[in-house]
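Fold this sequence, please.
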Amino acid sequence: MRGPRRHFVHSKVMAWVAFDRAVRSVEEYEREGPVDRWRQLRDEIHGDVCREGFSEKLGAFTQSYGMDRLDASLLMVPLVGFLPADDERVVGTVAAIERELVEDGLVARYRADEENTGVDGLPPGEATFLPCSFWLAQVYVMQGRMDEAETLFERLLGLRNDLGLLSEGYDVEAGRLVGNFPQAFTHLTLVDAALTLDEGWCRGAGTGAVDETRPGGARVD
């Protein structure tokens, strides 16, 4: 987002993903690389995020270090395998997002309020962000909340236009799609969520087993 430079938790988690996948490329596919160094960096990032990016006050991961604002991009924490979906810090983060960022069943990326105006430059009342809503449906599957996952997924499918297309956001007050249209990112998360739901039903709810070879997928154990 716009504004001064900060240590964004989502960015840190994605850095962890880079080193984690690099390590696995050596361990599982016999690629070459300084794997010991990569393991060290992966572990350093993981420890730093868990120490600096988690708010005991909120019981949740925050948008950036030293702040108490939420960001729905943190739903990626379990999706990329950074922490299990049933880890109490993930459970707390999901609960905080549901409490503060869900509007009429859909998820806003972060709270676009008066406080945020001077940082991001956007007026209050930014629309919900559809990819985050699909991520929440995936996390529900990983937490064994299949009924909630299916309900949210069906709700999101119901927002499509007559051609079956979605934009990046949805204005719940106006009842219409907004933002870039059609948005490829939204459709990617739709497909990923559909696959996760299918895996959840096939493998049994609560297994946390989704395919991390897909974008946003977490590891299948």
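The longest strand covers residues 169-171. The chain has a mean pLDDT of 84.
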